[in-house]
Amino acid sequence: MAFKAPVKDQLFCMKELAGIDKIAQIPGFEDAGYETAQAVLEESAKFNEGVVAPLNWSGDQDHGSWDNGVVRASKGFKEAYAALAEGGWQGLGQPAEYGGQGLPKIIGAACVEQTMAANLSFSLCSILTGGAIEALLTAGSDELKTRYIPNMVSGKWTGTMNLTEPQAGSDLALVRSKAVPQDDGTYRVSGQKIYITYGEHDMTENIVHLVLARTPDAPEGVKGISLFVVPKFLVNADGSLGQRNDVYCASIEEKLGIKASPTAVLVYGDDKGEVGPGAIGYLVGEENRGLEYMFIMMNAARYDVGLQGLGVSERAYQHAVGYARDRVQSRPVDGSAKESVAIIHHPDVKRMLLTMRALIEGERAMALVGAAAYDTAHNHPDAAVAKQAQAFYEFLVPLIKGFSTENSVEVTSLGVQVHGGMGFIEETGAAQYYRDSRILPIYEGTTAIQANDLVGRKTSRDGGALAKAIAAQIADTEGQLAARPSAAGKKLALQLKAARESFLQVVDFVVNNVKSNPNAVFAGSVPYLMLAGNLVSGWQMARALMVAEDKLAAGEDAQFMAAKIATARFYGDHILARIASLRDTILDGGDSVSAMPLDAF
Amino acid sequence: MAFKAPVKDQLFCMKELAGIDKIAQIPGFEDAGYETAQAVLEESAKFNEGVVAPLNWSGDQDHGSWDNGVVRASKGFKEAYAALAEGGWQGLGQPAEYGGQGLPKIIGAACVEQTMAANLSFSLCSILTGGAIEALLTAGSDELKTRYIPNMVSGKWTGTMNLTEPQAGSDLALVRSKAVPQDDGTYRVSGQKIYITYGEHDMTENIVHLVLARTPDAPEGVKGISLFVVPKFLVNADGSLGQRNDVYCASIEEKLGIKASPTAVLVYGDDKGEVGPGAIGYLVGEENRGLEYMFIMMNAARYDVGLQGLGVSERAYQHAVGYARDRVQSRPVDGSAKESVAIIHHPDVKRMLLTMRALIEGERAMALVGAAAYDTAHNHPDAAVAKQAQAFYEFLVPLIKGFSTENSVEVTSLGVQVHGGMGFIEETGAAQYYRDSRILPIYEGTTAIQANDLVGRKTSRDGGALAKAIAAQIADTEGQLAARPSAAGKKLALQLKAARESFLQVVDFVVNNVKSNPNAVFAGSVPYLMLAGNLVSGWQMARALMVAEDKLAAGEDAQFMAAKIATARFYGDHILARIASLRDTILDGGDSVSAMPLDAF
């Protein structure tokens, strides 16, 4: 099934919902308006449809191999990565001074979504590299920046994030890797890191690892973790590559999905390089502030994982629609034909496809609105505007990550179901998305970790003020919807209102009980995240409905607008409808979770 | 993770909810009371824990291979199947005159659930054999019965069901395989069948295929399909094996899961045997009634697939609990410890485990109550009692199949999530359940097919009378709950009432609109199935709560009873809570499904 980048819906969301015109008014982004976005997205579509997507299935089947520390990437990946570098895609959002194009996140995110949909495994390498660049930009010394960033921005080198150790997953306080300072200002790093995406590969000549480790005198816990750059090959002052550093890939994991993305176990300091025992590392920023810097990468990465959920969902949706149009089976239930028809005619198949589609469109709108908030937060000249946008963006990150990835498991599962028995046969391709998606609610912080963030930092810390401010904006949208002549608008206004009121009940519950009954609140944290993500996405779909109704009335792009209206209506009837049950579960379900004795499981 | 058969909960459900004592009062089942059940289940547990379960993971990794028509089963499967035969497990529920033990389904189903949980792939061979026996018992001539059934009951031979062809999946009207009558009363069968579970293997000396095909003058559609026995090797009059028949395994599928179960493409009539062109087949029953007979197998098989959903869920649950007890990560949210604790302490992990457990216990209770209804229907001397039980059983079959298998995808997915990053690594084993479970809502009729059955034959045909009669029984349970002194009972009474009232609203909607607006009704058919399955399972959990409260008060088996109460409460708070949203979706969501233009997807 050939992949088609969803350029049209991306542009609709950017223009009508995320307000790219306002982003283009921010100094520095003057050239980043709608026309630029359109041109970039169409070019990106060509690259992703033509170069990246065709390697998705083959990469899954013939995935990379490990041989004595050397990892061979899937066939074609090296050439595709070179094409990505050549096209400047790695540097799209990076500063011009390091060779990037300095485009806003709203454009970059849309391009990244395309690459993820085209080939999730492939996309991860440039995503991780982007995260490493971000950490260096934020906290690296000028020397580190100058030495490493340009070759990462150009796509000549790649980057990794080294957080997890066997005993330290969600709980980074347990990190044990060591970094011992040397007289020359460098450190010698040792320890074992696991789950390192693209931790080793043969696509580029060097790999820049960003590694969490403890210095000898560091305090216990997360306040004693520092961040280091550990390049695979040392980099000489003239930029040429030097000795092989003491970091070694002990194995790659046999995984359920994203198989073409090598997940490495990396061993530091086992005297397997050319530098003697201990990998040579360079401190990023100050000692003991590593977690803080890593969180910068993590926040960017969490947003990106949300896009992965969206991307793999889009791909699964396109696959399922294609099959449902082709596969002829059974007569229609309404008797409108005497012969068997394509299964897309059957109401249950339509319901499944619309569920997929509604979730995707809601998530995309939320993600691009979030990207616009990021751009505003980081670049708007008015500090108050920037601050407000930052708070909004930070509220959205756990929703974009958690809601979109949990849904991606549902969406890709529906994609298999639409295919019937064929969906279970690997060759069909639908199963790959189901396997690939399953990591998304886990890595870069499980959904529970996102939900903790939502409950703690994003909701309780300000007593629910931001959550309520967002709800007030949603209420404005309800008012606009209710005032419209269309029945669809009025119905969606009521549905949105019910959802918002449920959200407010839950916010009050969280704020009022998080200290007195934390077990009950955290038993409902994931349902709260799903409720909030559902509401915010539904809010965007409601805004989209109004735009689409107006444009349809004006005769603009009738088929697209009619589909948008139908999808928004479906969102109201089927997706917002989930909120009532989530609310009941949260408000009234904590005690029965606590009641179960642990030894009785 | 060693598997432990859930004997205790099975016995609880059999005794307290499904009424095995009443089954033992039915003539012929006098010896099949609680003590027998206990002895059989404990023996079954030994076999499944000791012999079958250890082959689950190895079978997934080293799954069977195809070589020029010959299929080698996974290592150890042949020996395990011999042990299954030796132990008499294949004939547990079969008539004594054919070498079976004649035990009721209520006991057989519990044993089968254990085998499915132990090893889903392995279990399928005996399940399919059981289905083939059932079809022969129902419609086969005495000669066919005598020649084939004893060796199938003993486990010496296995059986298959051959329905699907590339163009005929859910829609059997499209079956094209041919059967041409010969002068000697046999038929020559030709055509291609796909997705034939254990269609070829080397575990037994012969395989008895039951095949749907059309005779030359058969009418179009489903009324022109006949059923044939086509043995892999012909069987001589003295019972010895004769010529190799003309049925050939062209390939086995590369699947997402249940990999150790070979899924064959079978070609009939390609002159690859020793009998000349055309596989020699024997008509079962009368010509053109094949679908009717096949439905007998299908109904048994659908029930069994429901047990598969239950079984794989149980296995995934046990795996997840084991990991959650071992894995230490992060401090408790309530500050009750300063150190990191096992993740089972964290409320979100408990919520996930309880979701798994509550679904499993509800499904198990529903399945065993269903098995008792089957036993009553087929064996009760009072025709009126039997008829009522048959109707109840038939109402339950789509729920047992659809609800338990859809949930199995959710449950096994939660199982992966509990494991965090480890869950995505194949070696951990959690991913296998996630892959295995995905076929269950598809084969033996997709969830939509089950839902069509529920809407059509089971709900609309009698104007909702049976559905309402079941609701009236649930109302009785509510009354009993409400009258109890416990707060848990009173709360669950209200939750069950709300769920039942939603169910009744939906039943009225279905009955009133199925003719006038079938598209809207069938857009809600799967949500209706999920609602009904949720309600009936929840009803059983409510009954279980009352029993457990009484037994706990009497000091009987305190830990088990306390856990049952906690799980029933959780079911009310978290699972029954889903019904409100499902109801809204069904009652108010049909039009937005219809509104989407097909060409706009």
Into which percent range does the helicity of residues of chain A fall?
A: 55-70%
Structural class of chain A: alpha+beta
Please outline the major beta sheet of chain A: 8 strands, mixed
Tell me the β content of chain A: 5-15%
Keywords (chains A, B): FAD, Flavoprotein, Oxidoreductase
Cofactor (chains A, B): FAD
InterPro entries (chains A, B): Acyl-CoA_dh-like_C_dom, Acyl-CoA_Oxase/DH_mid-dom, Acyl-CoA_Oxase/DH_mid-dom_sf, AcylCo_DH-like_C, AcylCo_DH/oxidase_C, AcylCoA_DH/ox_N, AcylCoA_DH/ox_N_sf, AcylCoA_DH/oxidase_NM_dom_sf
Protein name (chains A, B): 3-methylmercaptopropionyl-CoA dehydrogenase
Summarize the structure in words.
2 copies of one chain form a homodimer. Chain A has a domain at 446-594. Helices cover 56% and strands 11% of the residues of chain A. Chain A starts with 6 loop residues before the first helix and ends in a 6-residue tail after the last helix. The model of chain A has no long low-confidence stretch (mean pLDDT 97). The first copy, chain A, has 601 residues and is α+β, with helices and mostly antiparallel strands. In chain A, the strands form 3 sheets. In chain A, strands 3, 4, 5, 6, 7, 10, 11 and 12 form an 8-stranded mixed β-sheet that branches. A two-stranded antiparallel ribbon of chain A has the order 1-2. A two-stranded antiparallel sheet of chain A has the order 8-9. Chain A has helices spanning 7-17, 20-23, 34-52, 56-61, 77-86, 105-118, 120-139, 142-153, 290-326, 347-379, 383-418, 430-437, 447-460, 465-482, 487-513, 518-523, 525-553, 558-575, 578-588, 590-595, and strands at 65-67, 70-72, 157-162, 178-181, 187-197, 206-213, 226-231, 233-235, 241-244, 247-252, 263-268, 279-284. Chain A contains 20 helices and 12 strands. In chain A, a hairpin with a 5-residue loop joins β8 (233-235) and β9 (241-244). The radius of gyration of chain A is 24 Å and the shape is globular. Chains A and B meet through α9, α10, α11, α12 and α13 of A and α9, α10, α11, α12 and α13 of B. Chains A, B: Residues 471-597 form the Acetyl-CoA dehydrogenase-like C-terminal domain. Chains A, B: Residues 77-156 form the Acyl-CoA dehydrogenase/oxidase N-terminal domain. Chains A, B: Involved in the assimilation of dimethylsulphoniopropionate (DMSP), an important compound in the fixation of carbon in marine phytoplankton, by mediating the conversion of 3-(methylthio)propanoyl-CoA (MMPA-CoA) to 3-(methylthio)acryloyl-CoA (MTA-CoA). Chains A, B: Pfam families: Acyl-CoA_dh_1, Acyl-CoA_dh_C, Acyl-CoA_dh_M, Acyl-CoA_dh_N. Chains A, B: Its EC number is 1.3.99.41.
